[in-house]
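Study both lines:
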Amino acid sequence: MNIFYKKNPLIDVVLLPLVVVSLVFRFITDIRRFLYLQGILSSYRAKSRIISVGNLTVGGTGKTPMVIYLSTILTGKRLAVVSRGYGSKGRGTRIVSDGKNILLGAELCGDEPYLIAKSIPGAVVAVGAKKAQVIRFVEQQYSPDIIILDDGFSHLKVKRDLDIVLIDGEKGFGNGHLLPAGPLREPPGAMRRADSIGVKGEGHTVENQIKKYAPLDKVFHFTYRFKGIKTIRQDAEVDAGTMKNKKVLAVAGIAFPDSFFRTLEAAGVHPANCIAGQDHSTYDKNKLRMLTERFSPDAVIVTAKDAVKIKEIERDEGVQWLYADIAVSEAGENLKNILRKKGFLP
């Protein structure tokens, strides 16, 4: 995936055959979007109000932390979260949490929905490939006030009341090509449909591209904020200061692990070794044992998304996880102003 963000004439030559495929992909997505926007293809209008959190590119831009953040400001509402459950082994519509109890493990629902269910105890969390079908089921069974559609920007089968699109300020739109020649699911101009645009990080030039398609009063900035380190075994707090003199192995099975490694560094934890796996990596005891035998660390620190899977197989106190949230820079209170305008906040 990182190849899409590197500027190199040789890479451009390698990707050239895929550019033709990406043009076909763009033509198909343009036709599909036109048919939905014209009402030729029907979209489901939910009884509950729908907030979509999505992005224009493949890979991580902070959608899961943003869903969790929204739950902290949409207080007093009955919330539900609907996700595809990418990487899970389950099929059909599945209830991860009924708002009282977590009913499925990460293996059957996916790491991100499980993390959301753990982080928003009072919310109903459901997964399934057919999101409109999942939304209907959630409405019938739980009658939520608001449903947050995780990774829903390009999912035109469901009408939404608010579209939030997230962009990595550092990586931007990569080489500017659509899949499979680049990271884009839709052209940058698709952000015209967005009600609010969140940029991860500050001081980047991506706003010069955004303002071609959307007014900057739609834009807000957010960053990851270190909250602490906990043990895998009991979620016991670990003093980050004690990590400074230890040999730490950092392991991240997420799309863009650099932000995780930087967050550790900013917290004063300087890993001796960093291992970056594929997004939605799977784990077993052999994999962890091989890593510890190879690097002989005093402690292993993983991401929150990895932790929900590792908890099921590992009880060693030396394996820990970093928990963080996002801090939203409310210059002009752009995000909250839009939520108020749309009637989600008083």
